[in-house]
Amino acid sequence: MPESSANTYTSFQRTAIIVSCMLGFALDLYDVLIMPYLMPSIQHSLSISLTEVASITSCTLFGSVVGGALFGWLGDRMGRKASLQFTLGLFAVGSVASAFAWDYWSLAILRFIVGIGLGGEWGAGMVLFNETWNPRRRGLGSALIQGSAVVASSCASIVGIWAIARFGQDMGWRVGLLTGGAPLILMIFIRFWMPESKAWIEFDRKRRSGEVPAAVRTANPLATLFRGRLAWVTTVSLVWLIGYMFCYYSIIVFMPTLMLKVLATPPEAVQVTMVVASVVGGVSYIVMGWCNDRFGRRFGAVVPCLAWLGSLGLLYAANGTHYAGSLLSWPLLWIAVLFAVGNSALGVVGAWLSELYPINVRATAVSTIYMAGRAAGSLAPVFVPVAASALGGQLADGMLIALPAAVLFLIASLILPETRGRSLDADAADADLAGAPGGIPDAGGRGDRIATKSQHA
């Protein structure tokens, strides 16, 4: 049989791909996660309410849905690499511009533009990576990319707290947002050193030469996701990501405020707590990445979710516990650590979504579904303060609206079909394309269409 395109990249090209994807995702998430540390400063500087400043994050995440659909389409039509470059440039420029906002609406609009850029980065990078990597190690590689979230989280806490302490309430948040311009440097690296997906190049060649069905060449990729057999897997995938993102943002956005403002925890203790949680979370990403290659995609989602449920149970039990000088006896440390372990469920998302869809709609599907989940997650920063008020004014109580979302994620993880090891080459997708627009791998859940080609990496 012909050699898989995943085995035709040089070591340098593979390194360039995974490093670019890791840095891209880290910079993407950094730009989102630094906002919670800047929220008190923004609230003070612009004289707005907690609900208004929290909704800024919602604007960013809602914009990412638009970006996910736009740049996903671009990735399927013009290539994964081109889409990745455009999206990095937009969110870098938008982030720098948002540092010069003068009121709530200017900041909300500029962060919405940032969100459009952020929306395409993850999908373009993740699809490119999964189309170039050894199918037997795809789960671990995807987890390493998602694991760069620990770098993003640590840097966001360090830079965010430092910027406010160094430059004060009125200028600190502006300095913090200016650091979001870093992706411009990554754009240059990608332009000159990162290769395009050969699977996409081969599919594009077939499309241009008329070797794929006319229905595939003319179909709207976004509409295709909701037709035929794909409609079912798209619906479950949306529920899956909505559950994850709503739970994640219900906690991650308000954890710094809970520690710093509500519980009056010393900033040094908060920094150590978040760094420890990030390190543990990073190890969990790697371990779960290996596990979802060894035991399947479902395993890599369900097991971390159980840690989430434990974290939320402890949050309920330890509501209002102040820091008493010992990190090890402080419940918030263990809540943060368990929640970080639960976050590693995201490590399986890129591989699983990429394996669920045929190449003609893969970038659109991965970007749109992921960012639609983010959009639902964007509602969490609005709902948490409302829930807290309705439940007596305790922020921790409001954050517990994450619980039903975690349960929803768990249920969807048990429903999605298993796809571990599926080849993503253009020729391996021919059977799916022949049945377009509805082809999906193994809707029965066994993942039978696995790679049978050369498996060396």
From TrEMBL:
It is found in: Membrane. The chain crosses the membrane at residues 12-33, 53-74, 86-102, 108-129, 141-165, 171-193, 230-257, 269-287, 299-318, 330-353, 365-386, 398-416. Residues 17-420 form the Major facilitator superfamily (MFS) profile domain. Keywords: Membrane, Transmembrane, Transmembrane helix. This is MFS transporter. Pfam families: MFS_1. Residues 437-457 are annotated as: Disordered. SUPFAM superfamilies: MFS general substrate transporter. It is a multi-pass membrane protein. Its main location: membrane. The keyword Membrane applies. PANTHER family: CARBOXYLIC ACID TRANSPORTER PROTEIN HOMOLOG (PTHR23508:SF10). It comes from Azospirillum endophyticum. It comes from the Bacteria. The lineage of its organism: Bacteria, Pseudomonadati, Pseudomonadota, Alphaproteobacteria, Rhodospirillales.
